[in-house]
Amino acid sequence: MRIIGALGVALIGLFISVDGTAYGQTTTHSQFGATTAAVVDDKGNMHVPADYQTTYQILGTWAVATDNGVGSKEMHVVYASPGVIAAYRKTGHYPDGAVLVKEIHKTATKPMTTGTVSSADALVGWFVMVKDDVGRFPKNKLWGDGWGWAWFNAADSKVTTSTDYKKDCLSCHVPAQASDWIYSYGYPPLKR
């Protein structure tokens, strides 16, 4: 009986420990899931996820044409957190907690056998967006219109230089307002 009693107490203790840990993770990692919580703290401050190049999925690449001459002046490579593509293809919407990371690179342009080619060169910085369907951070000026918005210079992936998404970010996304502020048509994996 003592063995069974001790085993029962141990199992109850384990259950409480696991339950408490799960609850603690939910409340201490903001109100998002684990993947998003690794990008957003409890006050809504964002940073570039360290492992996005190996754990996120590539949505697509944008080339920004040079102002004069041939080739591109910038390349924008966009990544989505795990599960975003499948969820979008199923519902046609970005799920709450989705993280999008856009790398901005200067380019190197040169002639190659296929023609003039621009490829990614020096990193300029990152633009991070986090989907927020419920308005979790109403006092944080980087959150609104259903997203968290932040720009990070290449020198520091932890501290944004953005101060107000309406002034710093939103104007570039106005043409995509009808598609939840994202130029989704440019991302082949989202097409059903």
Automatic annotation (TrEMBL):
Q: Which CDD domains match?
A: cyt_c_I
- InterPro entries on file: Cytochrome_P460, Cytochrome_P460_sp
Residue span, Cytochrome P460 domain: 49-184
Range of residues in the leader sequence: none
**Domain of life, source organism:** Bacteria
Q: Name one Pfam family in it.
A: Cytochrome_P460
Q: What is this protein called?
A: Cytochrome P460 family protein
Its organism's taxonomic lineage begins at: Bacteria, Pseudomonadati, Pseudomonadota, Betaproteobacteria, Burkholderiales
